[in-house]
Amino acid sequence: MNRSVLISGCSGGGKSTLLAELGRRGHAIVEEPGRRIVRQELESDGAALPWIDMAAFARSAIELSIADHATARGRAGWTFFDRGLIDAATALQHLTGEPVLDRVSVLHRYNGSVFLAPPWPEIYVTDPERRHGFDEAVAEYDRLATIYPALGYDVVMLPKIAVADRADFILDRLETR
């Protein structure tokens, strides 16, 4: 059984908070590649930032996601990913038209159930690492909500409930599969 579980969906939909809760419960978690890249690029005055060079940012996210996925393969128990390879490849393909999804989606599979955080305007905020607006976040969400089923994933929508209840929802769903 593939125990690498992807949590994707709308930017600002509570994914990182949910991952932190799963981590507090003792599960392995992998922080969103995009946030790690933004922090690194800001510290080094780099240009692979989504608001400067989105294609370079997406390529960096693909590389980091592949490394994250490889590291998780050897772990026991569930590993929860805050976004991942499909998100990054979808962004690059949307930007450039390069058929990267075809190349990466078969080689690097996650658990068959992908959990999607829907748009949630009541909790959406920008910050130094997330500068885009809510409309752009929803457009990205719409692309992802279409691509995951097309790649053969069972998309499970996360309910808009308290973070502890969301974590219970995911764990219950995974244990009953």
UniProtKB/TrEMBL annotation:
Q: What is this protein called?
A: NadR/Ttd14 AAA domain-containing protein
- InterPro entries the record matches: NadR/Ttd14_AAA_dom, P-loop_NTPase
Q: Where is the NadR/Ttd14 AAA domain?
A: 5-166
Q: Which domain of life is it from?
A: Bacteria
Q: What is the organism of origin for this protein? A: Rhizobium leguminosarum bv. trifolii (strain WSM2304)
Q: Name one Pfam family in it.
A: AAA_28
Q: Which Gene3D superfamilies match?
A: P-loop containing nucleotide triphosphate hydrolases
